[in-house]
Amino acid sequence: EVQLLESGGGLVQPGGSLRLSCEASGFSFSMYGMSWVRQAQGKGLEWVSAITGSSSSTHYADSVKGRFTITRDNSKNMLYLQMNSLRVEDSALYYCAKDEWFGELSLDFWGQGTPVTVSS
Amino acid sequence: SVLTQPPSVSATPGQRVIISCSGSSSNIGSGAVNWYQQLPGMAPKLLIYSNNQRPAGVPERFSASKSGTSASLAISGLQSEDEADYYCATWDDSLNGRGLFGGGTKLTVL
């Protein structure tokens, strides 16, 4: 059974940093790309970042480029999102998702999300 | 949003409803479209992939198509449990590649 478990969310002041983690199980983690998707309270889905299975390629939304960094550790089945220079508008529920076919945004499994609140 | 969806649609049980998604040549026009269903308080679920394919377990009532730079999701035999937010999604080849979600459509079953 595929499982994705996010952690690391919390309350942080504007300008601060957080590192989100996503523990994956139930599939060959290194074979699949992964994405982070966020959803502000009462708003729609926003794709944040994606990484290929081998980490050879990473992609970012314009809204987070230069501030967020996606990485993965295939030896630990872990996906990460390092978030720096956080802004109030980064407040959202952050989901990690498995990408069945990288480059198509076909996210076939999702975690339950970890909440991030950026506020002073 | 770069992908445009109607904010809301509504219909009565048993009816057929269509949700549209409009994009451009660099996204829908050049790649596959996926659809996601998000029930209240839940994580999104992949409903349709590769323009018109249903993952295992998704009822045949859900179908989708793509033509040019637009796509649509059709739900027939509407049921109360279909009340949810629906999002189209695709990859955009511009700007070093990026994922795109439509703004979402709230389906209300009257």
H/E topology pattern of chain A: EEEEEEEEEEE
- What's the end-to-end separation of chain A, in Å? 40 Å
Q: Which class do the helix and strand fractions of chain B yield? A: mainly beta
Q: Count of helices of chain B? A: 0
Record field, number of beta strands of chain B: 9
Q: Biggest β-sheet of chain B: count, sense, barrel? A: 6 strands, mixed
How many alpha or pi helices of chain A? 0
Q: How is the biggest beta sheet of chain A arranged?
A: 7 strands, mixed
Subunit arrangement of the protein: heterodimer
What helical percentage do the residues of chain B reach?
Answer: under 10%
Radius of gyration of chain A: 13 Å
What's the layout of helices and strands?
The complex is a heterodimer of chains A (120) and B (110).
Chain A: E1 3-7, E2 10-12, E3 18-25, E4 33-39, E5 45-51, E6 58-60, E7 68-73, E8 78-83, E9 92-99, E10 107-110, E11 114-118
Parallel strand pairs in A: 2-11
Antiparallel strand pairs in A: 1-3, 3-8, 4-5, 4-9, 5-6, 7-8, 9-10, 9-11
Chain B: E1 8-11, E2 17-22, E3 34-38, E4 45-48, E5 62-67, E6 70-75, E7 84-92, E8 98-101, E9 105-109
Parallel strand pairs in B: 1-9
Antiparallel strand pairs in B: 2-6, 3-4, 3-7, 5-6, 7-8, 7-9
Short overview:
The complex is a heterodimer of chains A (120) and B (110). Chain A has 120 residues and is mainly β.
Description:
The complex is a heterodimer of chains A (120) and B (110). With 120 residues, chain A is an all-beta fold. Chain A contains no helices and 11 strands. Chain A has strands at residues 3-7, 10-12, 18-25, 33-39, 45-51, 58-60, 68-73, 78-83, 92-99, 107-110, 114-118. In chain A, strands 2, 4, 5, 6, 9, 10 and 11 form a 7-stranded mixed beta sheet that branches. In chain A, a hairpin with a 7-residue loop joins strand 9 (92-99) and strand 10. Chain A is globular. Chain B is mainly beta. Chain B has strands spanning 8-11, 17-22, 34-38, 45-48, 62-67, 70-75, 84-92, 98-101, 105-109. In chain B, strands 1, 3, 4, 7, 8 and 9 form a 6-stranded mixed beta sheet that branches. A 3-stranded antiparallel beta sheet of chain B has the order 2-6-5, with no helix packed on it. Chain B is globular. The A-B interface holds A 35, 37, 44-47, 50, 59-62, 95, 100-101, 103-108, 110-113 and B 1, 31-32, 34, 36, 38, 43-46, 49-50, 55, 85, 87, 89-91, 95-104.
